[in-house]
Amino acid sequence: MLGMNTTRRERARRSSMKRVMVCGVAALLATIAGCAPSQRATERTGLVTMRGTPLTLQGVGPGAQVGKPAPDFVAIANDMSERSLQDYRGKTVILATIPSLETAVCDAETRAFNERASALDDSIIVVTVSMDLPFTQKKWCAAAGIDRVETLSDSRLRQVGDNYALRIKENGLLARSVTVIDGAGIVRYQQIVPELASEPDYDTAINAARAASQTR
Questions:
Q1: What tens digit of pLDDT does each residue of 187-212 get?
Q2: Would the pTM of this model clear 0.90, i.e. be above it?
Q3: In total, how many domains does the chain have?
Q4: CA spacing 20 to 30 A to 132: which of 7, 41, 150, 151?
């Protein structure tokens, strides 16, 4: 009988220890979650239309804001390597997001930026991001002779659309936008093109990039 009581007490003690451990881990996780920066899902309306039809932009947080640090991201290059915004630190980045290279307006825009980039010095780089697969981007760039614009795919990690709050709710593609980020990672200019079927304001974006590059 004594042995049975001892066994029961030992089981109860172990059960109590397990409950304490579980509660302790739960409390620790809650503390960590409370200390982590809050990431709130957002929806923005009234910014973009597609041939007059209103669209909704989704993301996590407020997106890029002029005068504040640009949201970081990781996207996939044409060779399947990962590229982060941090990889361009020290350069002024013209970050263009587009729906797809295989559409007429996006085709024209990327060719226009490639041509204009030839007049820029090495302190400025143009990066175009779309939901196209890396293989599609590589094939398109080769056929179009693109050599001054770097294309990245957001199809796998989706961090550009989410972090910059530029994902179109209705179709999952990226809105057309141009964001200028200086060498210190601060947003100096952004245009979210109000009509998806229109090209961006190239001159203002280029001038903003030149100004940001000169004030490094």
A1: 999 999 999 999 999 999 999 999 99
A2: no
A3: 2
A4: 41
